[in-house]
Amino acid sequence: MAVIFSAIVPAYGAEIAVDSVSAGDVFVNLPLKTLDILSRSRRMDMLDYYAADSIYKAPNGMEGLSELVKVTPDYLKVKITPVTDMDILMLRSPKKALAVVLYTIGGDGQAADTDVTFLDDRMQELPRKKYLEYPDVLDFFNLPDKEVKEKIEEIIPFPTIEFTADPSSTTLSATLTVGEFLGKENFEYIKRYMKTSPLQFRWNGKKYEPVK
Predict the structure, then answer these.
(1) In terms of DSSP bridges, do strands 97-107 and 110-119 run parallel, antiparallel, or are they unpaired?
(2) What does the buried/exposed string (b/e) look like for 75-110 if buried means 16 or more CB atoms within 10 Å of the residue's CB?
(3) 147: domain range?
(4) Among 52, 78, 187, 211, which is least packed by CB within 10 angstroms?
(5) Coil, strand or helix at 77
(6) Cα-flanking dihedrals φ and ψ of residue 178, to 5°?
(7) Whole-angstrom Cα distance, residue 81 to residue 170?
(8) In what order do the strands lie in the sheet with 199-203?
(9) pLDDT along the chain (212 residues), means of 10
(10) How many domains does the chain divide into?
């Protein structure tokens, strides 16, 4: 395994090579409560089995099983429960390394919704708005007039958005996921104006910018 965060986090005055932190390191040391059901030692076991090309489903605190889907130095995907997934994507520049963590809940009658978190190379959570401006519900639509705009805002007061990561380009895609839960009449209405492709956000080395 790569250098473990527990060995480098306390050394606040030390220099850390930006290529020494892997997505696996972030997974092992992630402080977010969303991974409380998997102990740190269990996460390490999962990585060891994956590195050995062994299929391993780790028991978690919900009395279920968690499984690593994909692991590379810059990307990791884990199926935590049947309705929760986590993606970890490393974002590198010459002077620093960041991790973007996508925690998605969805399934069993619930629209998929993603919480996006940014962490620095010392596992400190960073202000999300500095690195990604969440899309507004209207960004997902082609709006011909004010009436349509107001109607969509009325139909979707609380949008749910699923983010996915492309590890080959560090691009994030955002999809509005409320459709099937709106009822047939409302869904048919918004479908007429909804953009056919997900919104995309490209990392420019400092933050994510929407792709026009």
Answers:
(1) antiparallel
(2) bbbbbbeeebbbbbbbbbeeeebbbbbbbbbbeeee
(3) 5-210
(4) 52
(5) strand
(6) -80, -15
(7) 25
(8) 161-166, 171-176, 199-203, 208-210
(9) 34 45 94 88 96 93 95 96 96 87 89 95 92 96 96 94 95 92 90 96 95 90
(10) 1
